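Priority: medium. Attachment 1 of 2:
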């Protein structure tokens, strides 16, 4: 072979290899297993591998836990009990509208422990749009591909007597086998609260094989002569005589409205094959995740980022359906009626007001328009906006943060929904408490409105946390009302109460502290005591919860120098704690203790914005440093990849925003506080057609500090960017360095928004 011929051959081989190289798309970087290596005592996310479409009504997950266990899937488990349709937002809230499917061979078995099969993560494929597991005890491969309200399951059997178990779970269920139609229909009522008395999740399964065996299951008793079971715990088993490699396809859908609507929802699959449904799901995920384009040589960082973005677009979950006529309708989780319009659920605003909903307002505003329509309906149907919904009002957490959700959306320019009704809703919620669910509305509003705080000694727990959050919520209502053109008289109570955070600030300790009805502060006082006056945190965590007025907090503290020293102390104080309120170490405490970041507790929400406050007090380089520390040390794409509860996208959205280099410390302010970009280049493809470009020169693990920044080609010293500039397609160019630039961002004019700056002294 001559040299020329050899060179030509090598070039052709090179081109062939390059042509064969995999082209990675955003969804390829997602691991749905991040956060699944969790347990009651220590959370590394408390997630499950959700197989679904973004904001889809129905999720699917492999099930390792027992029926009713909030920890439905844990990475450390080695057996699967089935594949569950789930609507669970968190293990603490648990599930509703759930049933599971389990293939098996040999002989039919219904009991969840007896039917469980060994499996291995090495034979598992877990993506947002596709899941596959090998059931070793049965030599069966099970695959799932979802749509918004339906899914297709492909089961590859060996040569055997093969079966599919349908478990409708306990607490009241119904199953009917229809052999001639190759169908199983039924409903499940199992829930964890937040539902009307007539709640049902109706399901339908349609097989592509005739049944060679059928049995109904009535409270654990198998009856091969029966085709129906209507009891506390109903189930069904259907069988097939299969040859090795034979595939049984099952089309599945459900509805909260009726069996007929479940059949309508089944049409989402149309005549598509399993692979076609899988391909469409992949495209949908790439379209949503691809709104943010990231350039980096670090594949681990890409995997972490897109895994976080995936979690950021799961909740709130759609709770509406489409009729045969194309009408949008929903079963109301508040009054049990079927009504027109959108409905969303499965989110806690105490968590997600901070940056999950602000992320929607930047990247997916059209989705939040629908969610705001859903909030209008929630108020009309229940008399209150939800604070924690799953699917209806749930008793969990504190605050009246629906006000933030509503205000930020409107102030971000979202339109096309009934804002006047939402105004009535936030005003009503500020002055009332739900008669049955005390975390909805404002518990203690009578004290708060009269005294300016919720007292420590009136048997209302977490009173300081409530006071601080109510004050911010009042500011939100004030800003919302101003934008709607409400009168000064109508707005004045909210403007005045926005300063109520001052009433629980103790000048002696320079921390927030419980206050008695008589005006005296609680004694004794331990800044390290979790709970009590605070929510899942202590004074070191909650003192910073003055989102709308950091300058006011700086003034109370005694100026920038003292304020910065107090911020520094959060990291310098050892991870000591007082757990006496709980009577033991809750998982949030343990997660703080083991992270080696002092008393900084990123695994819980109250302190997640605190790092950005240095931008208000003239030391933005500390923000830059600590952001990198948190991102590098507390997030990975591994099963233990979170440092606490993921919490419906909030902890994930923090990472997404921080990677972009800005963060919404105060939703509703129209500003985002700058940090430091994480990637070499990012492009945000906005719904309005504009593109935000973020370029970080000299980016590296060591180079976290902002030496210089240009915005749209001009030097930029401010520690914030306005929403207007951002949504017009901002062009950021950062020069990063290994040492801080202590001259940039230090002027008073560089500080972000604070309410007190807008008010006459």
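Attachment 2 of 2:
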């Amino acid at each position: 072979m001559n040299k020329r011929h050899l060179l030509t051959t090598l070039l052709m081989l090179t081109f062939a290899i390059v042509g064969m190289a995999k082209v990675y798309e955003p969804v390829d970087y997602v691991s749905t297993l991040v956060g699944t290596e969790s347990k009651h005592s220590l959370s590394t996310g408390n997630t499950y591998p959700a197989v679904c479409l973004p904001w889809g009504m129905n999720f699917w997950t492999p099930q390792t836990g027992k029926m009713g266990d909030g920890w439905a899937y844990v990475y450390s488990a080695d057996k699967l009990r089935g594949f569950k349709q789930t609507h669970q937002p968190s293990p603490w809230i648990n599930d509703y509208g759930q049933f599971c499917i389990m293939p098996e061979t040999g002989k039919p078995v219904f009991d969840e422990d007896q039917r469980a099969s060994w499996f291995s993560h090495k034979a598992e494929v877990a993506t947002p749009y596709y899941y596959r597991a090998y059931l070793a005890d049965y030599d069966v491969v099970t695959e799932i591909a979802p749509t918004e309200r339906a899914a297709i399951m492909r089961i590859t059997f060996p040569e055997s007597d093969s079966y599919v178990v349908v478990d409708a779970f306990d607490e009241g269920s119904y199953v009917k086998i229809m052999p001639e139609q190759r169908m199983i229909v039924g409903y499940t009522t199992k829930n964890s609260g937040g539902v009307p008395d007539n709640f049902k999740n109706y399901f339908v399964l349609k097989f592509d094989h005739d049944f060679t065996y059928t049995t109904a299951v009535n409270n654990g008793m198998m009856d091969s002569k029966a085709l129906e079971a209507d009891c506390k715990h109903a189930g069904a088993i259907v069988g097939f005589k299969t040859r090795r490699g034979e595939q049984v396809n099952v089309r599945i859908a459900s509805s909260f409205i009726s069996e007929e609507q479940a059949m309508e929802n089944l049409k989402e699959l149309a005549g598509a094959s399993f692979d076609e449904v899988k391909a469409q799901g992949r495209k949908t995920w790439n379209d949503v995740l691809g709104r943010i384009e990231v350039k980096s040589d670090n594949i681990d960082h890409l995997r972490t980022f897109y895994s976080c973005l995936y979690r950021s677009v799961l909740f709130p979950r759609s709770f509406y359906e489409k009729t045969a006529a194309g009408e949008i309708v929903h079963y109301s989780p508040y009054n049990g009626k079927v009504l027109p319009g959108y409905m969303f659920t499965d989110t806690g605003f105490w968590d997600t007001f901070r940056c999950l909903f602000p992320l929607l307002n930047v990247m997916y505003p059209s989705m939040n328009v629908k969610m705001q329509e859903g909030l209008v309906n929630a108020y009309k149907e229940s008399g209150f906006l939800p604070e924690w919904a799953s699917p209806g009002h749930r008793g969990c957490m504190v605050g009246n943060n629906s006000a933030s959700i509503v205000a930020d959306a409107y102030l971000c320019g979202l339109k096309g929904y009934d804002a006047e009704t939402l105004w009535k809703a936030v005003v009503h919620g500020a002055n009332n408490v739900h008669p049955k669910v005390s975390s909805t509305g404002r518990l203690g509003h009578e004290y708060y409105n009269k005294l300016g705080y919720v007292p420590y000694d009136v048997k209302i727990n977490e009173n300081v946390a409530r006071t601080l959050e109510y004050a911010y919520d009042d500011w939100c209502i004030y800003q919302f009302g101003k934008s709607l053109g409400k009168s000064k008289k109508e707005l004045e109570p909210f403007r005045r109460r926005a300063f109520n955070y001052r009433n629980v600030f103790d000048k002696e300790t320079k921390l927030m502290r419980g206050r008695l009805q008589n005006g005296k502060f609680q004694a004794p006082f331990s800044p390290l005591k979790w709970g009590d006056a605070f929510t899942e945190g202590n004074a070191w965590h909650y003192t910073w919860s003055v989102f709308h007025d950091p300058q006011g907090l700086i003034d109370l503290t005694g100026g920038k120098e003292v304020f910065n020293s107090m911020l520094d102390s959060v990291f310098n104080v050892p991870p000591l704690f007082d757990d006496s309120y709980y009577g033991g170490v809750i998982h949030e405490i343990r997660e703080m203790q083991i992270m080696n970041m002092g008393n900084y507790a990123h695994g819980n929400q109250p302190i997640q914005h605190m790092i950005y406050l240095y931008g208000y007090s003239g030391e933005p380089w500390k923000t830059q440093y600590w952001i990198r520390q948190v991102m590098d040390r507390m997030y990975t794409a591994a099963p233990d990849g979170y440092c606490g509860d993921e919490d419906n996208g909030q902890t994930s959205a923090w990472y997404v925003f921080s990677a972009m280099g800005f963060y919404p410390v105060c939703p509703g302010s129209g500003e985002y506080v700058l940090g430091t970009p994480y990637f070499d280049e990012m492009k945000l493809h906005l719904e309005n057609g504009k593109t935000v470009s973020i370029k970080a020169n000299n980016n590296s693990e060591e180079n976290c500090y902002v030496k210089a920044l240009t915005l749209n080609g001009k030097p930029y010293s401010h520690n914030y960017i306005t929403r207007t500039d951002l949504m017009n397609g901002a062009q950021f160019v950062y020069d990063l360095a290994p040492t801080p630039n202590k001259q940039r961002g230090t002027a008073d004019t560089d500080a972000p928004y604070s309410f007190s700056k807008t008010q006459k002294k």
